[in-house]
Specification:
Structural class: alpha+beta
CATH architecture of the largest domain: 2-Layer Sandwich
Order of helices and strands: HEEHEEHEHHEHEEHHH
CATH class of the largest domain: Alpha Beta
Shape: globular
Number of strands: 8
Radius of gyration: 19 Å
Oligomer: single chain
Bound molecules: zinc ion
Largest sheet: 4 strands, antiparallel
Helix content: 25-40%
């Protein structure tokens, strides 16, 4: 057995233990993933994973959180976007590999805290931003149906994976972009290689394996070594009654946003023990 393979196996074993074992992943141990294209084992400097309700629900400013990094505009379509440092380090490695294959990854959205998500949600709630299909949500009643229409693509504040600093939207907010031409080439590359850098698509097409939740989003990718841990924490710590503080939050409980949306993701993006 060669040394690189040995390092990989030891490291993957350690990741699995960390990910399934309560609080032990709050260590500074490094995670290792393999880039199968170049056969170079790359190391990610992991950060402690905060488990507080305020972090899970996005009640913080990423610009003031030392675990977050400002995304270089080389990697994004605009300034002032943030990611957790470990997720960003993994992304930059994926970016370089994609670039070498002739594919340009562009971050369109990254960390969004509660206040940011609230502004997105409430603009849609009031009809100031139209839903896809040019639908004005404010025309929809009762309010539960209005919330369900927005929930096709947008999270209620406090429940977005974008709060965690692990999730990114890439290149275009449209599934059709990823279904032909250079968008399809990009998507096929991500399907084949994102996993090598720890990324997974949580919002895949609905079907028997994923009956509930947001519609398919081919642009949304999540850094699993951290987001798997945070999802498990959210499952045990958060409940529908905590989802409040914005227009329409009173219907979160009757929709069961926690079970149907927060947990309604591609099973491949959850811990094996959670399936
Ligand atoms: Zn997204």
């Amino acid at each position: 057995m060669n040394l690189q393979l040995l390092v990989l196996i030891i490291s993957l074993g350690s990741m699995a233990c960390n990910a399934s074992d309560g609080r032990s992943e709050d260590s500074k141990a490094s995670q290792t993933m393999i880039n199968t294209e170049s056969r170079v084992v790359t190391s990610i400097d992991t950060l402690p994973i905060e488990r507080s309700i305020s972090y899970l629900m996005g009640a913080f400013d990423p610009a003031k959180n030392p675990h977050f990094a400002l995304i270089d505009t080389v990697h994004a379509d605009r300034p002032n976007l943030y990611l957790r440092r470990d997720a960003y380090q993994a992304f930059t490695q994926m970016y370089q590999a994609a670039k070498a294959a002739g594919i340009l990854l562009v971050i369109r959205s990254a960390t969004r805290n509660f206040e940011y998500q609230k502004s997105i949600w409430e603009r849609k709630w009031k009809g100031e931003t139209k839903l896809s299909g040019n639908i004005d949500a404010s025309d929809i009643s009762p309010t539960k149906e209005r919330a369900l229409a927005i929930l096709r693509y947008s999270s209620m504040p406090g429940t977005s994976r974008h709060h965690w600093g692990t999730d990114i939207d890439l290149n275009a907010f449209s599934n059709s972009y990823f279904e032909s031409g250079k968008g399809l080439k990009l998507y096929q590359w991500l399907q084949a290689h994102a996993v090598e850098y720890g990324f997974c698509q949580p919002y895949t097409a609905k079907g028997p394996a994923r009956p509930f939740g947001y519609n398919e989003e081919k642009w949304h990718w999540s850094y699993l070594p951290v987001s798997q841990v945070l999802l498990k924490e959210a499952k045990t710590t958060l409940n529908n009654s905590m989802i409040r503080g914005f227009a329409g939050s009173e219907v979160a409980e009757s929709i069961d946003v926690m079970s149907r949306y927060v947990l309604g993701i591609n099973p491949l993006c959850t811990l094996a023990s959670e399936n």
